[in-house]
Amino acid sequence: MIIDCHGHYTTAPKALESWRNQQIAGIKDPSAKPKVADLKISDDELRESIETNQLRLMKERGSDLTIFSPRASFMAHHIGDFEVSSTWAAICNELCYRVSQLFPDHFIGAAMLPQSPGVDPATCIPELEKCVKDYGFVGINLNPDPSGGHWTSPPLTDRHWYPIYEKMVEYDIPAMIHVSTSCNACFHTTGAHYLNADTTAFMQCLQGDLFKDFPTLKFVIPHGGGAVPYHWGRFRGLAQEMKKPLLQDHLLNNIFFDTCVYHQPGIDLLTKVIPVDNILFASEMIGAVRGIDPESGHYYDDTKRYVQATANLSEEERFKVYEGNARRVFPRLDAALKAKGK
Ligand SMILES: [Zn+2]
Prior knowledge:
10% strand; TIM Barrel
């Protein structure tokens, strides 16, 4: 089977966005603040939003199951306070849970956390627990920069983040390191802020010794790892100068990259540079880049084509990228599939 480890609910019914706009209006004008119960989205609306979008494309392109999380750019942790983030995260996670219940063979959830700038990440734990225990979610998205492009939080290796890591280790769930929208005009959200964050997260881990404290902690760095695979020699060299172990031993038991690169030479490079055990299939569909590549005639985010076409992978290795690695990195996904005889 083909598991796409990176999909967001970018096509949620418009009522969700309207509710969020009301919530944001309510920050300045408490009389405008909506109640959670004001948001009404029926199962039929959810079904339609998925069947005509993600599920249609999954069937056309030949992927089977998507690890599905709330729309990343809409997390916008920088807006409002913890209470605002907490209510918003609960709503978004519940919608992904409902999608996973409506299409149990095709979607399984990953949680957005109610992060808020300057607030102790431990406050995210109740939402995380609910998503794993009650919703059967198999991972989380962790935003290394809840300030939205101003980087006011300590690096991911700081003890600041440890309460989340302790819970992740307890539940055996990985985190996709995923920022949200940029509110810094210097950084375009998906073209710069996302890729900067991917690269930054890797470098923070390289500088620190986080995985000595948490040997089983797992991070998925999305968007092909940002600049990391392309500059692998730079990172190896920096690790050497910092007297760190080889990257293979220092980071690659714990850090994985997805395949959201959107062109063939990018996937060729990724699969040549990064060990196959550290690459997980993903498309981030329907996401940042929705057009058709005039050079290939296919959608940029139809990433299966590139994985299929690369000469760097044997069939056995392709299986790892499509399925085997995802089962290893997301043990709760593997357990859920096995429980269904898959
Ligand atoms: Zn994403």
